[in-house]
Specification:
This protein has 126 residues and is of the alpha+beta class. Helices cover 30% and strands 28% of the residues. The protein is globular and about 45 Å long.
């Protein structure tokens, strides 16, 4: 929050703040890694991380990319750009583990597929 003039903590437990710049708002999140999930929805523990660790904890490759505004560079550690270009929804890592961590991820896969016309990769769909 100290990096920006106008912020609102919208997800403090996850390191997320809403940044207001003029008439626009942006969500800014600290890189993090999630600990185990015991409720099928939320991690029990959240730890600070780097961009690679943060990418590995995300649901799908197309959601695991970052943009470095200082260097104007796309950071892609999980093959998200390729899957975005090819129109594929693919879980990061083991799909079974990703869906056990957060049960809503299954619905997100279906929603993204329907909304964007993307195919769900076979291992992710299984």
């Amino acid at each position: 929050q100290s990096l920006f003039e106008k912020t609102v903590a919208v997800g403090a437990q996850f390191g997320v703040v809403l940044v207001r710049m003029g008439d626009r708002e942006f969500e800014v999140a600290q890189f993090r890694e999630d600990g185990p999930y015991s409720d099928g929805r939320h991690p029990d523990v959240v730890r600070p991380s780097d961009e690679k660790g943060d990418a590995r904890r995300r649901d799908f490759t197309i959601n695991g990319m970052f943009y470095d505004v200082s260097n104007h560079e796309l950071l892609d550690y999980v093959g998200g750009r390729r899957d975005l270009d090819e129109g594929v929804i693919r879980a990061i890592g083991d799909p079974g583990l990703r869906f056990c961590e957060d049960h809503l991820r299954m619905m997100r896969a279906v929603r993204f597929s329907a909304r964007f016309g993307f195919a769900i990769e076979p291992a992710t769909a299984a």
